[in-house]
Amino acid sequence: MTIEEQDILERAAAIGASTWSDALDELGIFGTIEGIPRQSGSGRMTGFAVTARELTGHLGDFEKHDFAVGQLIAAAGPGKVLMVDMGGARISTMGGLAALATRNQGVAGVVIDGACRDIEEIRETGLWLSSRWVVPTTGKTRLKLLPPGCDVSIGGVSVSQGDLVVGDDTGIVVVPRARTGEALAIAERIRGLDEQLESRLRAGESFAAAAAAVGYIPDRNR
């Protein structure tokens, strides 16, 4: 990872998903993932996307080696977030053992537009993981991993390899890699306004007065 990428991740980790969403609004970018709740892990997760798409089918449609969960895990590492596009299928692509291996590899997080299983085991690993579903149904002979790195769709958001991903208790936001610098600058400005507003509110000012004073919400009477 480059020094620039490390700097981006350190700065991004200080900013919540809601603030990132506001920053993307200013840029006219839709990047808020919908319908994929966090199932495991805690705190804020930040990393660069490693994208993967899996074909889905019925029991016996594919060979066991097509499942290729080891290849999926090996594609990521520290500072990376696995973004797995299964088209929302209710089939598990990651269980407890795979989650343990993923955690051991230092992967920042996993987001699955599909399902995981063995959720108790996954939670024991502490891996930050979100999935649309939790089901017992294995992906063996039901899933086929395509070559990682392709563009995918996760929770209604288009995701490309290397995009910035931020997740916390509120949700998950994807920032296009080419717009990361300007989005980060906007997000830091918004966070600064929030901090000023909070300081005034804690000092006893009304919301309307404090918001107007810091320019949080323009006062039409001024």
Description:
- Keywords: Magnesium, Metal-binding.
- InterPro entries: RraA/RraA-like, RraA/RraA-like_sf.
- It comes from Oceanibacterium hippocampi.
- This is Putative 4-hydroxy-4-methyl-2-oxoglutarate aldolase.
- Mg(2+) binds at residue 118.
- The protein has 222 residues and is of the alpha/beta class.
- The chain has a domain at 3-9 and 29-176: Glucose Oxidase, domain 1 (3-Layer(bba) Sandwich), CATH 3.50.30.40.
- It contains seven helices and ten strands.
- Strands 1, 2, 3, 4, 5, 6, 9 and 10 form an eight-stranded mixed beta sheet that branches. The chain has a two-stranded antiparallel ribbon with strand order 7-8.
- Helix 2 (17-27) packs across helix 6, helix 4 runs parallel beside helix 5 (119-125) and helix 6 (180-202) packs across helix 7 (207-214).
- It is elongated, with a radius of gyration of 19 Å.
- The protein starts with a helix and ends in an 8-residue tail after the last helix.
Question: In angstroms, what separates the terminal alpha carbons?
Answer: 48 Å
Q: Class of the domain at 3-9 and 29-176, according to the CATH hierarchy?
A: Alpha Beta
- Remind me, CATH topology of the domain at 3-9 and 29-176? Glucose Oxidase, domain 1
User: What is the overall silhouette?
Assistant: elongated
Pattern of helices and strands: HHEEHEHEHEEEEEEHH
Radius of gyration (Å): 19 Å
H/I helix tally:
7
**What portion of the residues fall into strands of 2 or more residues?**
15-25%
Average pLDDT over all residues: 95
User: Low-confidence segments, ≥5 residues, pLDDT <50?
Assistant: none
The strand count comes to 10
Q: Into which percent range does the helicity of residues fall? A: 25-40%
The major pleated sheet works out as:
8 strands, mixed
CATH architecture of the domain at 3-9 and 29-176: 3-Layer(bba) Sandwich
Structural class: alpha/beta
CATH evolutionary superfamily of the domain at 3-9 and 29-176: Ribonuclease E inhibitor RraA/RraA-like
